[in-house]
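Batch manifest, entry 17 of 40.
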Amino acid sequence: MWDGEYTVRIDHLKPLNYLESECQQMQQISDRISRLRENENLEEAARAVLKHLGELKRPYLTAVEDKLLGLIEREYGFGD
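Output type: structure tokens
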């Protein structure tokens, strides 16, 4: 989950039918977002972008979304 951990029964989950590679992509995106959200000095604009990216219902980022995430990572010392 993008904003915390939840416990649910398995019968309340629906399959997303993602390929293994898509699941890995989603995990990488989630890890990037989570790492940034732990920063106490994160500005509201950055927090809002991360919230939006975390709520996407697809296993990839568009080019613009990836650039936004990369910009935030660089701004807070996590980028290249």
